[in-house]
Fold:
Amino acid sequence: MIYRKLSPTGDYTFGGNANDFYSGTTAVAQAIYTSLRLLQGEWWEDTSRGLPLFQSILGQPGTPEHVRAIDMLVQETILKVQDVVQIKSFQSSYANREYAIQSCIVQTKYGDVVLEGVTF
Structure:
């Protein structure tokens, strides 16, 4: 997999030729990150794609049932990313209406990717 790099402000990078792209596990990690940041209804070409952050996650009570449902939505989003094989481990938290991926190890066809500190 080859994936265009994002700048620190979240924009695609240009002007660096091959230096503007990631490959392998780094590319998959960025693809996962951008997939988690894509909100449902945000992409004009397919408004059904994206994480239902406002529809199903934020503002919901932090009951164990809701947290499990959110975990399932997030894991489903991760598993749909190209070259992801499986999620080896997943730990999240939900406090003060903030959902966070504490630690997630994802097996890709290139090796393992560790996600930490992704918050909504």
